[in-house]
Amino acid sequence: MPIYVQDKRLLLPDGRTLAYADNGNTSSSTVVLYLHGTFGIGDASCIAPILLDKNVHFVAPSLPGWGESDAVPSPAHYSETLQHDMTALFIHLRLDATQLKIILCGYSIGTMAAQMLFQKSQKHGILVMFNTINSNFSVWKRSHPSRWHSFPFRDQISSMILLAPYSPPHCDPEYARYMSWKAYMYTGPPSRYMPFNILARFMRWVLMSKLASEALAERYVRRLLFTGLSDDEREHYTRWRESRGLPEGRVETDLAGNMVRSVAHSWKGFLDVPAVYHSGWGGVSPAQANKEADPAPVYIVAASRDPSVPVHCAEWLSRAYRNADLRVVEGSHISVLLHLDDLWSEVLP
């Protein structure tokens, strides 16, 4: 029987706090690391039934600066800090971790983080034999400085799922060409050159009133994600909701609550997104992943009418990653999540 506790806390070696939730079989060798999107937090309260059936361990951290997770000291070094944080989390969750099968799953801004973890070091021998190391992560890091070039669990990543993905702007010369005007101002070229992060700060000022309470946030969620659904999308959504035993209105309420909690502690996660997006991602390049003899498969799902992230990014990624599978579903931003169950049945053995 799975044991679920929401909003766990981990004190990181650098003194920061990482919030996370997990669910499913905590002893399973198959781990799904889910990285949430904008205005999200680590939430494992309602995972897909197939993940429970397959005895998967579902792990959902709150990304730095969101929810109760402390922000990174410097967005310019986001990739390195993220690798440290996720390694500390994995060591905390299991002491013998050499036989894991990790499935990375990122949604929206979480796809940036997923690709940072997916990037393999150019140096070999990155896998750490955890049965021989001190469980104190800070001691291990000081003892192995030459190995600290990428996520130490990278060799155990069996696949990566990117939902409504961002392409790395330092690799994709047309990343901003098809953006909506809101996305263009938030993460496009203007965000790089306007001083004091003024565009993101203005957006925060606009959004603060919409997220001042869960009731206001729920009204915003309904208008943003559900008002414009087509009949087919609404039917698909109803089937998806009922398959999880959720009453009508529960999803909207949960999303609104998570949005409010995502910025209740700090807006730093939201304000850091433009700088993180243009940080270079720690040198992430799909071309580097393609050099592997047998690269892990990359599953990409985008929605045809998504105003948040243009389909172009998914199409670019599908061409950039050698072992990519692209699926463009008819619908809006939330549609990619509704189609995720179909993908789980293919990815999981």
Automatic annotation (TrEMBL):
One of its GO terms (cellular component) is membrane. Pfam families: Abhydrolase_6 (PF12697). GO terms for molecular function: hydrolase activity. The keyword Hydrolase applies. It comes from Cylindrobasidium torrendii FP15055 ss-10. InterPro entries: AB_hydrolase_1, AB_hydrolase_fold, AB_hydrolase_sf. Keywords: Hydrolase. Residues 32-338 form the AB hydrolase-1 domain. This is Alpha/beta-hydrolase. The lineage of its organism: Eukaryota, Fungi, Dikarya, Basidiomycota, Agaricomycotina.
